[in-house]
Amino acid sequence: MGHSAAVWDHKAAVEVTKDWNGIDQVVLRSPRGSSTRVSLHGGQVISWRNDQGEELLFTSSKAIFKPPKAMRGGIPICFPQFGNRGSLEQHGFARNRVWAIEENPPPLHPNDSKGKSFVDLLLKPSEEDLKCWPHSFEFRLRVSLTSDGDLVLISRVRNINGKPFSFSFAYHSYLLVSDIRYSSCTYKHSVVFSEVRIEGLETLDYLDNLCHKERFTEQGDAITFESEIDRVYLSTPNVIAVLDHERKRTFVIRKEGLPDVVVWNPWEKKSKAMMDFGDEEYKQMACVDGAAIEKPITLKPGEEWTGRLEISVVPSSFCSENLDPSPFLRP
Ligand code: BG6
């Protein structure tokens, strides 16, 4: 745990508390008042607030905060399997395990610590995990909050096995939006749109989970939401934008090592079928996940993989032409 800005008290910036199940949660704060909360259950980010104290991630009012299942919302980690693409439990076991805080992890690049509040978490497989997935690994997750309030997640998976293994991965990010439903109306002779729109995935191929994972090609336009959607977009750019017109803000998702993007909204019927999700709550969320799914990551003994995600929120006048294609090369 740490914070490197000289004038900023790192002890006040990183606080460990217990939830009502006795599991540790870590709260990170930025000098300007943003904060994020990470549960050691799943290594899951369960809250991210801007400097006005407004929540930016969706959490269901019916979420169950009780192990062994992951809480519905925030950013659960899907590892070592995504969805039902394998023999393990849905989305793998990492989101259902209790992680540990690691005080002195192997170092990251100095830029990953500079000016940030952060916590380092570690997951190692239990005896039970090794029975269903017989691969020894160390999974290190650093969650950071920059001084501007951006959320940064860095995952490092190391093979400490004698043999190679493969896995898939996703940061299952539940973004909080005003109203996902696309609608338009005419006001004073001009068309007014209410919409949430994803830019950056136009013209790409995707696997449609609602059509037996069949491959399709996205047509030219940005993605808007009019019905259930459950897709894995392939070979995506490193920067994606999720625009929320009503809130006049844009989530900018920068990623590295994560070629795919999952887009999920359960819409009306599926919402009603999920016991930990309100019937109408699909309107307030969009999952847009940086992921590695189509081509699983393979690690030889001793090798390590890194997958990074940075989410920032900017005013909605921002659009895809402004997106910097080299997300982590900024000073
Ligand atoms: C999405 C999957 O990422 O997660 C969907 O593409 C799935 O198929 C959804 O329904 C939620 O999964 P879970 O296990 O958290 O209910």
UniProtKB/TrEMBL annotation:
GO molecular function, one term: glucose-6-phosphate 1-epimerase activity
InterPro entries in UniProt: Aldose_1/G6P_1-epimerase, G6P_1-epimerase, Gal_mutarotase_sf_dom, GH-type_carb-bd
Catalytic EC class: isomerase
Domain of life, per lineage: Eukaryota
Keyword Hydrolase found: no
CDD domains: D-hex-6-P-epi_like (cd09020)
GO biological-process terms attached to the record: carbohydrate metabolic process
Enzyme Commission number(s) from the entry: 5.1.3.15
Cellular-component GO terms for this entry: cytoplasm
Keyword field: Isomerase
Residues bound to substrate: R72, Q90, R95
A Pfam family this chain is assigned to: Aldose_epim
Transcription recorded as keyword: no
SUPFAM superfamilies per the UniProt record, alphabetical: Galactose mutarotase-like
Range of residues in the leader sequence: none
Catalytic activity annotation: alpha-D-glucose 6-phosphate = beta-D-glucose 6-phosphate
Family membership: Belongs to the glucose-6-phosphate 1-epimerase family.
Name of the protein in its database record: glucose-6-phosphate 1-epimerase
Source species: Dillenia turbinata
